[in-house]
Amino acid sequence: MARAATTADAFNAVAEPRRRQILDALAGGERPVNDLVRQLGLGQPQVSKHLRVLREVGVVDVRDHGRQRLYRLNGRALKPIHDWIQPFQRSWSERFDELDAVLEDLKKEEGHAHDD
Amino acid sequence: MPMTTSQSAKVTLPADDQILITREFDAPRHLVYKAWTTPELVGRWWTAKRGEATVMEIDLQVGGKWRYVMVADGGMEVGFHGEYREIVPNERIVSTEVFEGAPDAESVNLLTLTETDGRTRLEILVQHQSKEHRDMHINSGMEAGLQDALDLLEEVANSLR
């Protein structure tokens, strides 16, 4: 079945702000759809539609639990996004490590200033 | 006492055209602010040991300009500049930023410093004009990573000669 280009991969699926809100909510643990409806203040049809898109790209999994269907985050499907951001994050991490060293020096200077 | 270990910056993408960078520092915020706004001090951390800082200009006032240039270890010159739009000492700075290699992609950066128990949480929210510009900005990190890999490859290749 042909799928709309907007839902073709995890990048596009999480580009929608409401879907990111759903992922944020699921980051706290498994939830039934009603919880998400309440938390996001959206109609159930809209939440279900977003969940379907997220499931199609594998970012969200679902399982039956009694009468409920529980949705949960599948971190592995988000890995391409993580991998994309990683080098950018690493260059900032390296900068901040150097900044730590500068701050240690400033703290020492300030400590001496108080001693005087 | 727990050992101080260096921790990773956290990067998230709150919206299509935004980047959010956060990190906590074991220092009060007036020192973080000082390290962020004093040219000699910025020169010590901004290059992340990937090159040499050659220009560090900071005119810290609303409407004042800033410009940082470094010569990367590979010899390439990388420059950034912008203008200060809002300054609340020790708390927040709103400034524009342009990577001189992509002059159309100007972002507006909001720096926020929050202090709790002598520690400082730093947040930079980068607001781009479009998703394309935001993605280009993230990709620049990838290119830096790639450059590292290529440099390493060159070293390895040279060692085999």
**Morphology call of chain B:** globular
Q: Please state the average pLDDT score of chain B.
A: 87
What is the distance, rounded to the nearest whole angstrom, between the alpha carbons of the first and last residues of chain B? Answer: 49 Å
Order of helices and strands of chain A: HHEHHEEH
- Give me the secondary-structure category of chain A: alpha+beta
The number of helices of chain A is: 5
| Secondary-structure element pattern of chain B, one letter each | EEHHEEEEEEH
Helical content band of chain B: 25-40%
Model regions low in confidence, pLDDT < 50 over at least 5 residues of chain B: 1-5
Reported for the largest beta sheet of chain A, the result is:
3 strands, antiparallel
The strand count of chain B comes to: 8
In which range does the helix fraction of chain A lie? 55-70%
Alpha carbon gyration radius of chain A: 22 Å
Quaternary organization: heterodimer
- Greatest contact pair? A-B, 27 and 37 residues
What would the principal axes of the Cα set say about the shape of chain A? elongated
Instruction: Give the strand line-up of the largest sheet of chain B.
Output: 1-2-8-7-6-5-4-3
Strand-residue proportion of chain B: 35-45%
Structural class of chain B: alpha+beta
How are the SSEs ordered, and which strands pair?
The complex is a heterodimer of chains A (116) and B (161).
Chain A lengths: L9 H4 L3 H11 L3 E2 H8 L3 H13 L3 E6 L2 E6 L5 H37 L1
Chain B lengths: L9 E3 L5 E8 L3 H9 L1 H7 L5 E8 L6 E8 L4 E12 L3 E8 L7 E10 L2 E9 L3 H29 L2
